[in-house]
Amino acid sequence: MPEPIHDLVDIGANLTHDSFDPDRDAVIQRALAAGVRRMIVTGASPEGSVHALEMARVQPGVLYATAGIHPHHAAEFTPASAALLRRLAGNIETVAVGECGLDYYRNFSLAPIQRNAFAGQLAIATEVNKPVFLHQRDAHADFTAILREYQAELSGGVAHCFTGGRAEMEEYLEMGLYIGITGWLCDERRGQDLQAAVPHLPLDRLLLETDAPYLVPRDLPVKLAGRRNEPSILPHILHTVARLMRLDAAEVAMAATRNTENLFKLQN
Questions:
Q1: 13 part of a folded domain
Q2: Structural domain span for residue 63
Q3: Which pLDDT tens digit goes with each residue over 129-159?
Q4: Is residue 52 left, alpha or beta, with left meaning phi > 0 and alpha meaning psi from -120 to 50?
Q5: For a tag site, which of 81, 87, 159, 229 has the least CB within 10 Å?
Q6: Each residue of 67-82: pLDDT tens digit?
């Protein structure tokens, strides 16, 4: 087992998820022991965004938060929730607006409602001068069309949990986005397009994330209780990225951490 690299950042951990309620503190301690020194807690609903900020305030410098409404919850984007997100995003512990975007794969919200919520959150991001934490699945054309309307005014962003291929990745790179890589990369069934794209990802645009509790890497050599992913697994994703890029893991880790600090304005 390689020695831990002690300066990793998990940019996308859903630590407000109720599966972490019994042992959240232990999960964070395992992450720290594995070299994951900082974690960004994803806000995916109004309530979840409030909780993410509360968590970040309890462990400053270790936990940070985002404030957003996931496309699955797009119907919850109202004038009142928009005002709440604006207030949450104004806090120093909140480093991005989102998770926001479009998801036409699940379609838990109607597409027009998703597009309205997405555009509204991009507008908030331009107001508060924070980057965006982006979600896109099976909605690339609409997603990029809306994003381009706000691109010039945005303070950057990340294509969170990127699962596409090289052409889609290069379009996001051309738009100035960072690319968030998860354990999807470790899936020999679904991750082949991503595995082919990663060697072409510029090192200065790479971010690392687990999307815990989701997306347990399929090739993980240890079993996780309840198939629940957690931030301590991030080094496994790092080493997979490094192998595909044919680079030393420490070099990849250093670049990903530097990119994270630059995008989200994290203190070192």
A1: yes
A2: 8-264
A3: 999 999 999 999 999 999 999 999 999 999 9
A4: alpha
A5: 87
A6: 999 999 999 999 999 9
- Tell me, what amino acid is at 261? E
Summarize pLDDT for 98-110 with one digit per residue, the tens: 999 999 998 889 9
pLDDT of 11 strictly over 80: yes
Tokens coding 67: 């404030």
- Is residue 1 situated within a structural domain? no
Q: Domain for residue 242, yes or no?
A: yes
Residue at 2 is within a domain:
no
Reported confidence tier of residue 226, pLDDT bands at 50, 70, 90:
confident
- Token pair recorded at residue 122: 């991009």
Report the first-to-last Cα separation within the chain, whole angstroms: 27
CA distances from residue 27 to 18, 58, 232 in whole angstroms, order as listed: 13, 15, 8
How many domains are there within the chain? 1
Cα(29)–Cα(64) distance, integer angstroms: 15
Look up the CATH number of the domain holding residue 178.
3.20.20.140
Q: For 5-21, b where at least 16 C-beta lie within 10 A, e where not — what string?
A: bebbbbbbbbbbbebbe
Q: List, as one string, the DSSP characters of the chain.
A: -PPP-S-EEEEEE-TTSGGGTTTHHHHHHHHHHTTEEEEEEPP-SHHHHHHHHHHHHHSTTTEEEEE---GGGGGG--HHHHHHHHHHHTSTTEEEEEEEEEETTT-SS-HHHHHHHHHHHHHHHHHHT--EEEEEES-HHHHHHHHHHHGGG---EEETT----HHHHHHHHHTT-EEEE-GGGG-TTT-HHHHHHGGGS-GGGEEE---BTS---TT-SSPPGGG---GGGHHHHHHHHHHHHTS-HHHHHHHHHHHHHHHHT---
